[in-house]
Amino acid sequence: MLRLEKVDAYYKELQALWSISLTVNEGEIVALIGPNGAGKTTTLRIISGLHKPASGEISFMNQSISKLPSNKIVELGLSQVPETGKIFTAMSVYENLELGAFMKKARKGKNQSLERVFEIFPRLAERKDQSAGTLSGGERQMLAIGRALMSEPRMLMLDEPSFGLAPILVEHMFETIARINEQGVSILLVEQNVQAALELAHRAYLLENGRIVGEGNGKQLLSFESVRSAYLG
Amino acid sequence: MIESLGQTLAYGILVGALYGLVALGLSLVFGVTKLLNVAHGELIMFGGYLSFWAFSMLGLDPFLTIIFSMVGLALIGVLLYKLVFSWTIKFSEDVKIKNTLLVAFGLSVILQNLALRFWTADERSITASYTGVAFTILGVRFPAVRVISLVVAAVCLIALQLFLKKTYTGKAIRATVQNWEAASLMGIDIHKVYLLSFAIGAALAGAAGTLVAVNYSVMPSMGLEWTMIALVTMVLGGLGNIPGTFIGGLVLGLTESATSFYISSNYRAVAGLVLFLLVLIFRPQGLFGSKEG
Questions:
Q1: What span, in angstroms and rounded, lies between the C-alpha atoms of B131 and A214?
Q2: Which of A159, B29, B153, B237 could lock onto B244 through a cystine, CB 3.0 to 4.6 A?
Q3: Among chain A residues, CA nearest to B290
Q4: Which residue of B lies nearest to A81 if distances are taken between CA atoms?
Q5: Residue A143 lies in a domain
Q6: Would the CB atoms of A86 and B175 count as touching at under 8 Å?
Q7: Which pLDDT band, with edges at 50, 70 and 90, does A226 fall under?
């Protein structure tokens, strides 16, 4: 479904990604793990078109997307949930969700999508008319995901959905992600919470210093010496 | 005494509403694109001349010529954005402000010289058949032309606010102001948003130009003075804050009017600039500014 082949990326002169290749198949949850600064967020930004790759090929549903602007990539059904800071804080929760369904295609199904989002996140329904700036960290995370779901994506990319959440909420968040996946949305997940991510994901990639250094299913990666020592103590 | 206070207030508000409209387009464009278009005064000048043309050639009512100035300036805005500003929009924010300042300064010189060619250096103004008509309430005099101008300015403000708050396109503009990356992840084409905002900003400058031509006069060198007024008003109200900008205009109008009356009309413009400095020193985010759009 999503395929990256030998993608290099730079920030000014600094090379951030070195020959990244990865795939996400239809219906899969794939985790991208690695230490801070490994290039996880950069990888997502490259896929969603916010940052352009220097070389390599990215395709989604057998269509090249390396040169498309972000707004065209969303239209194909690939939606990124950026870090929590990127909800529209000066707007209401409802307006945020409405903007999630900005595209013509999504606008038609707006009411159904809203129902779906409110069913997954009842909290958002309670806070519908509240300013998004007044939401807690967990609620912002829900809003960011709900907003992305409003575009009726085939695939969702999540950037650290457990960041800043209380442990009890983290568990709930991962259950929710599994539920969204069961509804037929493929998922590429970037996570610091390695244990939980590897338990949830069908497959995972380990990213270090901008290179993919490991790949496999959760159990295989958990057995990696560097993963064990770095993340699981 | 009471009457003169009332007259000072009335005059301040009438002038201030015009200042608000003068700054509205600049504020919208700056808020959305972070382009500081110091050629805004020249756009107002073109609006004034287009109205003058429509008035003298077609014999339209002065306030109806606003259709010509707004549509004409929207088209000029699209052209300017595509030819000039779309090149500078891609820079990072700090480089962008510096570069667009230079570009817009150059543009203002070009526009001034174009105006010289088209309309000569003569001062032009539009005199309505009802100029000079005024009505008096409780001893306070309200000139008809000024009152209609206030209504026009208020209608522009309300229409812009409704557009930004109620329509999908308006919400896309506000989303882009808050976070353009997140906006583009929603499927919003931010370059279209920039182009549209610039065109609306230019159309508002056109509307302001009509009011300036009716209440004052137009000439090719007028741009800088109105750019200054727009800048002061925008900073008073809080950068990129649309209703704040309008209230900033009222504050500036009232300050000038009070200064003219109680001190001397020679110090009218000085008072505005002193207020501008005080706000910059003690409340740099503007009187009604906030961090978020």
A1: 81
A2: B237
A3: A90
A4: B185
A5: yes
A6: no
A7: low
Q: Is residue A171 part of a domain?
A: no
| Cα gap B197→B26, rounded to integer Å | 10
Q: What is the CATH number of the domain that holds B50?
A: 1.10.3470
Is B288 within the bounds of a domain? no
Contact B230, B37 (CB under 8 A): no
pLDDT band at B131 (very low <50, low <70, confident <90, very high): confident
Number of folded domains in chain B?
Answer: 1
Task: Give the residue on B whose Cα is nearest the Cα of A147.
Answer: B186
Q: Do B185 and A48 touch (CB under 8 A)?
A: yes
Q: How many structural domains is chain A composed of?
A: 1
The Cα of A47 is separated from the nearest Cα of chain B by a number of Å equal to 11
Contact A99 B181 (CB under 8 A): no
CA dist B210 and A64 (Å) reads: 50
* Cβ distance of A90 and B292 shorter than 8 Å: yes
Contact B178 A90 (CB under 8 A): yes
Residue type, B200: I
> Where are the extended beta strands (E) located within B209-258?
none
Answer whether B138 touches A (CB < 8 Å): no
B59 at interface of A, judged by CB pairs closer than 8 A: no
- What φ, ψ does residue B234 adopt, rounded to 5°? -65, -40
Q: For B132, which DSSP code?
A: T
What is the Cα–Cα distance from A124 to A140, expressed in whole angstroms?
9
**Is B290 among the domain residues?**
no
Residue B292: pLDDT band (50, 70, 90) is very low
Question: What would the pLDDT profile of B70-89 be if each residue is shown by its tens digit?
Answer: 999 999 999 999 999 998 88
Average pLDDT over residues B156-174: 96
Q: Which domain holds residue A199?
A: 7-166+179-232
Q: Which residue of B has its CA nearest to A72?
A: B187
Q: Which residues of B touch A148 (CB under 8 A)?
A: 185
Confidence band of A231 (pLDDT split at 50, 70, 90): low
Residue type, B233: T
- Find the CATH number of the domain harbouring A27: 3.40.50.300
**Per-residue confidence band for B229, with pLDDT thresholds at 50, 70 and 90:** very high
